[in-house]
Amino acid sequence: MAAAACAGEQAVEKQLKTWGFKSNVDVLVLYLAGQGIRSIPSLSRFRRLRYLWINNNKIQDLTFLKKNYCLTELYLNNNELTDVSGALNHLHVLQILFLHNNQLGKLGRTVKELKGMISLQNLNLFHNPLAQERDYRLYVIHFLPSVQLLDRKVTQRERESALHLYNHKRSAVVHSIAFGRRVNKPLVTIVRSRRHTQPAKRLVMPSGSGFGKGKNREPFENPEDAILQRAMTRSLMEFSCLDWNKVATCQERRLENKAEEPHEKLTVKFR
């Protein structure tokens, strides 16, 4: 055990000498890959460490990472890890984490350890026993929503399937009020000009209109009523246009060659 720790310490010191670091605060990168290391001494003295490669070794324990809060990229693939509980949950700014080709066997415990990584985008877990569990990808995608690459690219269809599987109630709500759904109810339009005025149609709100605005008294039975309610609570927008062909130019006004006609202004309001 002492020999293994000594080998890890020697590997760290060799890297410091190779890169010419004179102070621990200057160490942002450590490359310790492929050296057959079984144990690594605490790296807590490198408080600003951001990039760490310790892949292709024989690492079984990650307690040496407990003080490295600034890590953004961590490569732990091709080691002998069986559990990461309590070793990674403090790495809140981590963006890339490679854990493939290890012996991680508990999907729930592993994902729970990674939940605090709100910036995590690239995660590799393939060639671990947990990757053989049923709905492995959907489980990780649902509980780690920031991940864009899970062994491969995460698709929108996978996200929808994960939401349907692990939060069916929310999935139903999302599908019922999706903005892309076709609605047969016409929008309210107001057209006004000097010559003609068309009054707006008055819409009768559905019985579920108490839903929203912090009330949440009752949900809508008909999804189209929810869409209508949302449309009616949007901000009112107004667009106006003028037929400039009927407006005399400055030159025409001076020469009085063109009779002045009433100006027609078209205004459209909608939500």
Q: Keywords, please?
A:
26% helix, Leucine-rich repeat, LRR (right-handed beta-alpha superhelix), elongated, 11 strands, 271 residues, 7-stranded mixed β-sheet, 4-stranded antiparallel β-sheet, alpha/beta
In brief:
The protein has 271 residues and is α/β, with parallel strands linked by helices. It has helices at residues 2-19, 107-114, 136-143, 156-166, 168-176, 223-232, 250-255; strands spanning 29-31, 51-53, 73-75, 96-98, 122-124, 149-150, 152-153, 190-192, 197-198, 237-242, 265-270.
Number of strands: 11
How much is the radius of gyration in Å?
32 Å
Distance between the termini: 71 Å
Task: Point out poorly predicted stretches.
Answer: 180-203, 208-217
The outline comes out as elongated
According to CATH, what is the class of the largest domain? Alpha Beta
The assigned CATH architecture of the largest domain is Alpha-Beta Horseshoe
Describe the main β-sheet briefly: 7 strands, mixed
**Total tally of structural domains:** 2
Look at the helices and sheets and give the structural class: alpha/beta
Number of helices: 7
CATH homologous superfamily annotation of the largest domain: Ribonuclease Inhibitor
- Remind me, CATH topology of the largest domain? Leucine-rich repeat, LRR (right-handed beta-alpha superhelix)
Series of secondary-structure elements, N-terminal to C-terminal: HEEEEHEHEEHHEEHEHE
